[in-house]
Amino acid sequence: MVLVLGGVVSVQVGAALATTLFDDLGPAGTVLLRVLLAALVLVAIWRPAVRGTSRAALRDVAMFGVALAGMNLSFYAALDRIPLGIAVTLEFVGPLGVAMLATRRRLDAAWAMLAGCGIVLLSPAPGGSLDAVGAGLALLAGGFWGAYILLSARVGRAFPGGAGLAIAMVVAAALLVPAGIAGGGAELVDPGAVAVGFGVAMLSSAIPYSLELEALRRLATGTFGVLMSLEPAVAALVGLVLLGQGLSALELVAIALVVIASAGALGTSRAPAPVEA
C-alpha cells in the first residue's frame, strides 16, 4: 500500500512542479522536456532493442508512444487552464471507462452513474468559473490514458521488463518535438529549466513507475486499482498545498463521487491496472 500511495503522491507532486515551467516553456515545451528526459533515463536503464521484434509488436509500441504523447500533452495543456485536482478527476474517466468495459455486472452500472454524477458536477456551466477548453483537454487526456492502459498489456507481453515503455517514450518524445520547440524555444536548453524538467521526469515517470511495478508484485490487481483511485483526491490535496488551488465544496463532492465510483469499479474489474507513465 505504501508503494502505491508513494507513486500516486510522486506523480502529483511532479505535475505540480511542472506547472512552474509553464511561464517559460508553455505546456508543450514542459511536456517535451519531461518525456525526453524520462526516455533517456529509461533507455539507459533497459537498453531496449528492436531487432527481431515482430511487426505487430512494433506497431503496438508505436501506438503506445502515440498514446503517451497525447495523454501527456493534453493533460499538461489542461493543467494550464484548470486546477490539478479537477484535471486529474476528469482524466480518470479513462481508466474508469476501461474498467467498466471489462465487466458486465449490474453493480457496474451504479458505479458508472455515480462517476457520471461527479463528472456532471465538475462540467463547466454557462457563466461558471471552470474553463471549458481545459475540462475538454482533461477528458481527452483520459481517453488517451484508457488507450495507454489497453496497449500497455500488449506491449508488456511483447517486450521484456520496461523495454517497451522505453521505446514508447522515445516515440512519444519524437512526436512532441515540433509542438515542444514551438512552445519552449531556446528556453528548453536553459540549465535551470532542464534541472526542473529532470525533477519532473523522475517524479512523474521513473519513480512512480518503479514503485508501481514493485507494488503489482505484492498486491492483487483489484487492490492496486482501488488504491490508484485515490489519485484525484491526492491531486486536489497537492494542488491546495503546493499551488494554493482551493476548491469549492461542490467540486470536492464531485471529486469524492468519482473516487468512490473508481474504487468500486476498479476493485472488482479484470481490466489492467491503471498505471500512468
Topology of this protein?
Blueprint lengths: L1 H17 L3 H25 L8 H25 L4 H8 L1 H9 L4 H17 L9 H27 L4 H22 L6 H26 L4 H8 L2 H13 L5 H20 L9
Helix pairs in contact: 1-9, 1-11, 2-3, 2-8, 2-9, 3-7, 3-8, 4-7, 4-11, 5-6, 5-7, 5-12, 6-12, 10-12, 11-12
Q: How does this structure look, described?
A:
78% of the residues lie in helices and 0% in strands. The protein has 277 residues and is mostly helical. The protein has one domain. Helix 5 runs antiparallel to helix 6. It is globular, with a radius of gyration of 18 Å.
Question: Key features?
Answer:
277 residues; mainly alpha
Total strands: the figure is: 0
Query: What profile does the largest beta sheet have?
Result: none
Radius of gyration: 18 Å
Stretches where pLDDT is under 50 for at least 5 consecutive residues are: none
Overall morphology: globular
Q: Report the helical percentage.
A: over 70%
Short characterization:
The protein is built from 12 helices and no strands. The protein is mostly helical and 277 residues long. Helix 2 (22-46) packs antiparallel against helix 3 (55-79), helix 5 packs parallel to helix 12 (249-268) and helix 6 (106-122) packs antiparallel against helix 12 (249-268).
